[in-house]
């Protein structure tokens, strides 16, 4: 006789327990999937009161696409057939909002083993899923950053060493060509070898640009004048099927960047745009002033910038290609048709200029490359670069007593030969110690020194020379331009690999300073 009251008491306790749970939606379904019970947790997650939902089919919690795919019925069938159904997916609240839910469905059977209903437990894990996705995105971004940093370090080191080799090859070929009489069988071969070496030099320049270790000469640049000055070159390079459109408002602020590298970047972007429009089309180059706040989303400090854009109406890029487009050595142009360093070089130029490259593209809508470049601060009195002009004329100077310093014997031999061919007296030194010893013995007019030397760098040597021999001019020759913070920005530099003409021009400029 006591079993009845005890059973009622147990059921009441069970009901109290279920009703006390608000972190889980716990409710019962009949064999057809209609809701037969509803706890406060279910009301909290779903938004329905018990009176609104009891008797309704549980499929109303599923998205329209899941209902069309038959997912609710399959969930009950799997629970009945396998003893449990567990899954995560989108579910709908009463107000139509989506939540990411973790769902468990267990079958309820009678004494004969027939399914008479289901117990369903649902947990809202939307916030947890969002946190996991954010964490995964951060990890992916960190891994990508570390990968690119490692590639950049490797690339910069390789480019420096390769520049030294090209320095020896180019300089020697140039001198051989000058000294040999013209021979139709030999001279074209020498010219061909020089062109190949110069292509290698251009490749290392792009590698250094990606690694953000190229030697940049940052000057105030009038973008409108620069683009106007190279429009003819662009049109000749792209062909008659392409139309170049430009838009620059009057009074557009000057930007601070390397004008020669920017011209190369614009030419590269224009060629990419042409390749994306094989049937022809329009390439638009535009500059607009922009002021960024503290949370601009561009990834730049607050301040005044100019957004230089190059856009096309080509086929655009798929999301997976867009995500990798600026990676070094990634290209879709096929073997032998591209190095994959074009966009990464432009990225490096923008970063070294204090700006950012932003790439936007959609399939069927074309591609836009944005270069955000900092405006020139007030009070900057450097000469404004307005476009490519005639090369500076080189006047013979002369004869100087020059000390050439380089720890690479191939490069040192080449530099000495170039200087002697220009009519100067040259003393070679294989290290900073040798150079300082020579300065004590000889009267030297000018020192040209490599930067990346062991023990004592060229920069340290230059500081020592200015302290002990203030009347001696110094030129820093380097293929690796990332110098320590605090280095003298006015120290004349000569980028490796250099030709004899580059060397002569550097000597002329330094000696003109007095």
Question: Could you characterize the architecture of this molecule?
Answer:
The protein is an alpha/beta fold and 514 residues long. The chain folds into four domains: 3-124, 2-Layer Sandwich (Beta-Lactamase), CATH 3.30.450.20; 140-210, Helix Hairpins (Orthogonal Bundle); 219-374, Heat Shock Protein 90; 401-513, Rossmann fold (3-Layer(aba) Sandwich), CATH 3.40.50.2300. Helices cover 43% and strands 21% of the residues. The protein has 15 helices and 16 strands. It has helices at residues 3-20, 40-46, 50-53, 64-68, 71-82, 126-179, 187-210, 223-238, 259-275, 319-324, 342-352, 409-421, 432-441, 458-468, 500-513; strands at residues 25-30, 85-92, 98-109, 115-124, 219-221, 242-247, 255-257, 281-292, 303-311, 356-362, 366-374, 401-405, 425-429, 446-450, 473-478, 493-495. The strands form four sheets. The chain has a five-stranded mixed beta sheet. Strands 13-12-14-15-16 form a five-stranded parallel beta sheet, sandwiched between helices. Strand 2 and strand 3 (98-109) form a beta hairpin. Helix 6 packs across helix 12, helix 8 packs across helix 9 (259-275) and helix 9 (259-275) runs antiparallel to helix 11. The protein starts with a helix and ends with a helix. The model is unreliable at 334-340 (pLDDT under 50).
């Amino acid at each position: 006789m006591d079993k009845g009251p005890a059973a009622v008491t147990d059921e009441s306790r069970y009901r109290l327990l279920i009703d006390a749970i608000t972190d889980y939606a716990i409710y019962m379904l009949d064999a057809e999937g209609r809701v037969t019970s509803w706890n406060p947790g279910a009301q909290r997650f779903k938004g329905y009161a018990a009176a609104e939902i009891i008797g309704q089919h549980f499929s109303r919690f599923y998205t329209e696409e899941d209902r069309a795919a038959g997912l609710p019925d399959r969930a009950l069938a799997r629970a009945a057939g396998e003893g449990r159904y567990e899954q995560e997916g989108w579910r709908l609240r009463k107000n139509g909002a989506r939540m990411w839910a973790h769902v468990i469905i267990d079958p309820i059977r009678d004494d004969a083993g027939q399914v008479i209903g289901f117990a369903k437990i649902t947990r809202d894990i939307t916030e947890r899923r969002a946190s996991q996705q954010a964490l995964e995105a951060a990890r992916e971004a960190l891994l990508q950053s570390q990968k690119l940093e490692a590639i950049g370090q490797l690339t910069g080191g390789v480019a420096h060493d390769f520049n030294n080799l090209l320095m020896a090859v180019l300089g020697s070929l140039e001198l051989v060509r000058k000294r040999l009489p013209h021979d139709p069988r030999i001279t074209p071969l020498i010219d061909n070898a020089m062109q190949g070496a110069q292509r290698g030099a251009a490749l290392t320049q792009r590698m250094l640009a990606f690694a953000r270790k190229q030697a940049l000469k940052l000057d105030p640049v009038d973008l409108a004048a620069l683009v106007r000055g190279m429009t003819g070159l662009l049109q000749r390079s792209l062909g008659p099927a392409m139309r170049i459109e430009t838009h620059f408002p009057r009074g557009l602020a000057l930007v601070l960047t390397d004008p020669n590298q920017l011209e190369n970047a614009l030419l590269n972007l224009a060629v990419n745009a042409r390749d994306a429009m094989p049937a022809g089309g329009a390439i638009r180059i535009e500059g607009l002033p922009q002021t960024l706040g503290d949370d601009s989303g561009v990834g730049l400090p607050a301040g005044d910038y100019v957004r230089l854009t190059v856009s096309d109406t080509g086929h655009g890029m798929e999301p997976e290609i867009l995500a990798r487009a600026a990676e070094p050595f990634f290209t879709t142009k096929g073997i032998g048709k591209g190095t994959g360093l074009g966009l990464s070089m432009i990225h490096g130029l923008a970063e070294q200029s204090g700006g950012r490259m932003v790439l936007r593209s959609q399939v069927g809508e074309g591609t836009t490359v944005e270069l955000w470049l900092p405006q020139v601060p007030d009070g900057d009195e450097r000469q404004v670069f307005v476009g490519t002009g005639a090369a500076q004329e080189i006047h013979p100077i002369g004869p100087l007593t020059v000390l050439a310093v380089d720890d690479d014997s191939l490069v040192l031999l080449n530099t000495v030969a170039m200087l002697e061919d220009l009519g100067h007296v040259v003393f070679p030194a294989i290290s900073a110690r040798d150079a300082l010893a020579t300065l004590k013995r000889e009267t030297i007019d000018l020192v040209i020194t490599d930067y990346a030397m062991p023990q004592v760098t060229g920069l340290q040597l230059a500081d020592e020379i200015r302290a002990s021999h203030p009347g001696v001019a110094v030129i820093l020759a380097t293929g690796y331009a990332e110098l320590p913070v605090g280095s003298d920005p006015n120290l004349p530099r000569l980028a490796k690999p250099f030709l004899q003409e580059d060397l002569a021009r550097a000597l002329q400029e330094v000696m003109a300073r007095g």
